[in-house]
Amino acid sequence: MIPLTLLKQYGATKREISAQTVIFLEGDTAHTYFQIVSGNVKMFNTNLDGKEFVQGMFEAGQSFGEPPLFQSSDYPASAQAMSNTTLYALPKDQLFKLLKDHFDVHLAFTAMLTKRLMYKSMILREISSHDAKHRILTLIDHLKSEYGQPSEKMEVNLTRQQISELLGIRVETVIRTVKQLEKEGEIEIKERKILR
């Protein structure tokens, strides 16, 4: 997202995070911009029963946890490394200086936040008004439009558990629905991977 040379120039520090390490907790004060170099991170909320709802999954080249930096509020979700992860951390004041000094980066940053907002809106609509089949296909089609080629099959790089956490559906329902979608010819399954 933001070129690493710029991040370093503005004082970002490199951090090596072990798998399963919590980077920040829901309710912590937001004061740092995080950008992933390698590995992946999930942002999630946990309900009173201990069930996780994943707000987003982020990988190399992506940042996470930015919105509360712009309104001086607390993080609305927790962030945890899903695998060994290398990231850069930049203090909020330095991020703002960087964005003021580099309008092209600011514009790309705004576009990225807008894209995420549109995704959240789509997922909220899906969760509130559609069945599991429709939710799963919508998520897969969204991923394909983001990371694949519309005319080619794409392997979905999510586990059944991750789909469950992203859509707020029980994992058993995801497993059953994926099998049903395969029977209906909506998706293919090869070596436990979903293709569409």
From TrEMBL:
GO terms for molecular function: DNA binding; DNA-binding transcription factor activity; kinase activity. Residues 1-116 form the Cyclic nucleotide-binding domain. It comes from the Bacteria. Residues 130-196 form the HTH crp-type domain. SMART domains: cNMP (SM00100), HTH_CRP (SM00419). Keywords: DNA-binding, Kinase, Transcription, Transcription regulation, Transferase. GO terms for cellular component: cytosol. It holds the Pfam family HTH_Crp_2. This is cAMP-binding domain of CRP or a regulatory subunit of cAMP-dependent protein kinases. It comes from Roseivirga pacifica.
